[in-house]
Design brief:
Blueprint: E1 4-13, E2 28-29, E3 36-46, E4 49-57, H1 61-66, H2 70-83, E5 90-92, E6 95-97, E7 103-109, H3 120-123, H4 125-138, E8 142-146, H5 159-175, E9 180-183, H6 187-195, E10 200-203, H7 213-220, E11 224-227, E12 238-239, E13 242-243, H8 250-267, E14 275-278, H9 287-295, E15 308-309, H10 315-320, H11 330-342, E16 347-350, H12 353-371
Parallel strand pairs: 7-8, 7-16, 8-9, 9-10, 10-11, 11-14, 15-16
Antiparallel strand pairs: 1-3, 2-3, 3-4, 5-6, 12-13
Helix pairs in contact: 4-5, 5-6, 11-12
Length: about 375
């Protein structure tokens, strides 16, 4: 059996000086974000079991990374470099999206059966246009347009129908000068959207559903979001007929799958700096598995790509509270957004843009204050 290694940042700080020992830095900047990491867990798994685990501080990193030896040590060193990688801005049309603070992606569903808007933006194009404009005005960096519901149990959509839904929304968002992402797993839909002014692909199947998707993304040179979902067919939420994906360990399994998807994309000609990753919260995962992934979010920086999270209004919020409906999950959505920001996430895909932007701005203010607070420096 082949062993695999995972480098978890487990001690996070608001600022580097909070961890300074006086003899040098005590923390690294995590993936170019406003989060700093000072303690780490190096874990080796083999045959579904943990066979090696080492907790270490920054000063002990060199020895800890070398400890597993051979190819595992080389992989540990690569992941260590990825944890400190500063990601370049995304250039989407005329808009430059910096990734040194959490950015907000606003959701525009143009489907008849969306769990969150019930088809309002599809049936009333003027309302959809006004909603997109309000999200941009509220501070959305990107508008993510989706023409197929990916909720559990949602019916598959014909490609032609999806194109008819998505293209008009792309056109009116492009007319506003928006940076546009298209939430689709079909190359034909993406191709039509790119021709009308879209800039980015958000593929919930990580380009596994449509064999043409990899070639199209590579040739177009557009950024792509690779999301984890266990399903391989029409139902992305199922795996081998099971609900909730047959995971040995959900965190390492999702990490391994995204690593493979990312490596395959790069080998197929997609530039490394054009790839974002999304662990797929809510897709084929139980409540416990979703919570495990959220608590382990800093690990995913070890993959070397910017991290996007889509947790807004998810069913897990109701499950943890009082089974509130989708439109009554704002508080939980903000709580999950804060958890993502505290883990160094680069982008949040949300329905409630204004409220999330406000939360991000307050969070950013606290981080800025921490960076300029020198009272934490050792005397």
């Amino acid at each position: 059996m082949t062993a695999s290694i995972y480098l978890h940042p487990i001690g996070l700080s608001n600022s580097p000086q909070a961890e300074s020992t006086g003899d040098g830095p005590g923390a690294i900047r995590l993936a170019g974000s406003m989060v700093y990491a000072s303690r780490f867990a190096l874990v080796v798994r083999e045959g579904g079991k943990v066979v090696h685990r080492r907790i270490f501080a920054l000063a002990e990193a060199e020895g800890a990374l070398a400890e597993p030896g051979g190819t595992l040590a080389a992989e540990a060193t690569r992941q260590w470099a990825n944890l400190q990688k500063v990601h370049a801005p995304l250039q989407l049309g005329e808009r430059t999206i910096r990734l040194d603070q959490p950015q907000i992606m606003g959701v525009l569903n143009v489907t008849p059966d969306s769990f969150s808007d019930g088809g309002e933006w599809l049936e009333k194009p003027d309302a959809g246009r006004a909603h997109a404009a309000s999200m941009l005005e509220a501070g959305a960096a990107i508008i993510d347009i989706g023409g197929e519901s990916t909720r559990p149990g949602g019916a598959a959509t014909f490609e032609g129908d999806e194109i008819e839904r998505v293209v008009p929304a792309v056109e009116y968002c492009a007319a506003m000068g928006a940076a546009i992402s298209v939430d689709t797993r079909r190359a034909g839909v993406l191709e039509a959207a790119l021709s009308k002014g879209a800039h980015m692909a958000n593929d919930v199947s990580a380009m596994r559903y449509d064999p043409r998707m990899v070639e199209l993304v590579a040739s177009a040179g557009c950024p792509v979001i690779l999301m984890h979902a266990p399903g391989t067919g029409e139902d992305l939420h199922s795996k081998d007929g099971l609900s909730g994906g047959d995971y040995t360990d959900v965190v390492s399994d999702v990490f391994d799958t995204l690593k493979h998807s990312r490596e395959k994309a790069i080998a197929s000609g997609i530039a490394e700096d054009r790839i974002m990753i999304d662990p797929g919260i809510g897709f084929g995962k139980t409540l416990g598995e979703n919570l495990a992934l959220i608590n382990a979010l800093p690990l995913f920086h070890s993959l070397g790509s910017p991290l996007l999270l889509g947790m807004s209004r998810k069913r897990m919020i109701g499950a943890l509270s009082r089974e509130e409906g989708a439109h009554e999950r704002l508080g939980g959505s903000i709580a999950l957004a804060m958890a993502a920001m505290n883990a160094g996430a680069h982008m949040l895909r949300v329905h409630d843009v204004a409220e999330t932007v406000q939360a991000r701005n307050v969070w950013r203010g606290m981080r800025d204050a921490a960076l300029t607070d020198f009272s934490t420096l050792p005397q």
